[in-house]
Amino acid sequence: MIARKAPVVRSSDRRLSPVAPELIEAFDRDGFIVLEDVFSDEEVQRMRATANELRDYPQSLADETVVSEPDSGAVRSVFAPHRQSDDFDLVSRDPRLAEVARHILGDDVYIHQSRLNYKPAFRGKEFYWHSDFETWHAEDGMPDMRALSMSVMLTDNHPQAGPVMFVPGSHKQFISCVGETPEDNYKSSLKRQETGIPDKDSIASMVAEGGIEAPAPKAGSVVIFDCNTLHASNGNITPFERMNAFFVFNAWSNRLEAPFAAGKPRPEHVAHRKVDAPLRRLSRQHRFAA
Fold first, then answer.
1. 177 Cβ contact partners less than 8 Å away, ≥ 6 residues apart
2. Closest residue by Cα to residue 245 from 130, 93, 135
3. In whole angstroms, what separates CA 160 from the centre of its chain?
4. What is the mean pLDDT of each run of 10 residues along the chain (290 residues)?
5. How far apart are CA 262 and CA 134, in angstroms?
């Protein structure tokens, strides 16, 4: 374990936060927060309809952007929806998300990665404990811990249906994982991650110190977590489908370099390099709305 050197919240004046300052303090302390009721029921219905359409017509999507479950063949993720859908392009730039990212990261931002996650009822698979930054640094060439993820809930979450689990405070320690990065590791890791995961003793140590929390907010809520927060999810054997739109915001000053521990970078649909400018700001009048 290596103690984190980089600050978590980069804004110099938290009084200017677009959300309650207490939430920013909680993000700094725990490495994740939940924003309730960010999107209306009508907005969620529109996003969910678009997400279902993208899943149901994979032939209309760019090559390799659809990832299936390792056993059942059910669609697990659709990558780069903000580049393949006007709706999700607007959501990615909506000030209710982007302004929070700019404040926490203290910089202009761009989308490093986006995807739609589907955890189908009865057969949705687990995702093992990991820190995103470990992969983004090793395989994508992200220089610093200056990125965060926002998960927009498109369905109500249930504690029994495999919501994401977080270890509070784990973002303050970086776990250097053992082993070399296999060639084209992304092809298997997006289905079932087995490389770049912490050892069991490190996980047990972090959980002993911080515990485990598994927020299960309703549709329209947003879960935000730091790029180095340890997280995982169990399988879903309930009748309840879980679906979310997932956006990774990276600081413009933290754009990707050559991979730090891989022979070549992951492809563009997984880690965006072809980005000419930060996200264009939208006024509240032009934000995503049903």
1. 134, 195, 196, 197, 198, 199
2. 93
3. 21
4. 95 88 97 97 97 91 85 83 96 96 97 94 87 94 98 95 95 84 58 71 95 96 98 93 96 97 93 96 67
5. 12
- Give the separation between CA 22 and CA 129, rounded to whole angstroms: 27
User: What is the reported pLDDT for 192?
Assistant: 55
DSSP letters of 2-70? EE--S-S---S-GGG-SS-HHHHHHHHHHSEEEE-S-S-HHHHHHHHHHHHHHHH-GGGSPTT-EEE-T
Q: Which are the contacts of 104, defined by CB distance < 8 A and separation ≥ 6?
A: 8, 9, 10, 11, 24, 27, 148, 224
- For the chain, the straight-line distance linking the first and the last C-alpha, in angstroms and rounded, comes to 46
State whether the Cα torsion 68-130-212-26 is positive or negative: negative
What tokens does 180 get? 């070399």
Cα–Cα distance, 20 to 224 (Å, whole number): 14
CA–CA separation, 122 and 240 (whole Å)? 8
State both tokens at 265: 């970078």
Report whether 108 contacts 278 (CB < 8 A). Answer: yes
Q: CB-based contacts of 119: which residues, under 8 Å, 6+ apart? A: 125, 161, 162, 233, 236, 241, 242, 243
